[in-house]
Each structure stands twice: as structure tokens, then as C-alpha cells.
Amino acid sequence: MIHVTASLRVKDGCRDEYLAHFKENLPNVWAEDGCIEYVPCLDAETGWKVQSLDPNRVTVVEKWASMEALQAHARAPHMNEFRRKASHLVESTTLQVVEAA
What we know:
Elements: E1 2-10, H1 15-30, E2 35-41, E3 57-64, H2 67-75, H3 77-86, E4 90-99
Antiparallel strand pairs: 1-3, 1-4, 2-3
Helix pairs in contact: 1-3
């Protein structure tokens, strides 16, 4: 199983618009072969000093059956369309792709 954590920092005031585009695309992603989990998340207040909160951060938690499924996801036409609609709302992105040790 492949696990992905994508952390996106959206421009000030653009989080709701970004999430609207993201949620519009969710049924397409969930229908992909090999998609186990794909969900947008927002920072949750814990009170822990080690945590840095950012109201403009959207973290996408993903699980894929295989690397091939993840790579097909990245090339999917609906993902290209989503990027066309939403990329102007994003300041920066970091991506971590891992598999069980």
C-alpha cells in the first residue's frame, strides 16, 4: 500500500474556494482503480507546542493500492481539470509518498 501526504498552502482567503473545487472532484478520485482513501484535512487545534497551525494549509491524506494506481491518478484527466481550476489558488505544495517498512 502507498501512503501520500500532500500539504498545500493556499493563498489568503482562498481556502474555501480551493476546498469547493477539491470536493467537486472527490467522486472522480474515489472511483479510480486502487484508491483506498483520499480526503482533504484542515489543521486541528491540540494545544501541543510542537504543532504549528496554519489556517491556509490543506493536507490531503491518500492511500493507494499500488504505485501504479498512484501514478495513474496523477495522469487522470479529471486531475488535470482540477489543477486547471485550482492551481492559481495554491502558494506552495509539499508531497510525501511512503510505503510500509
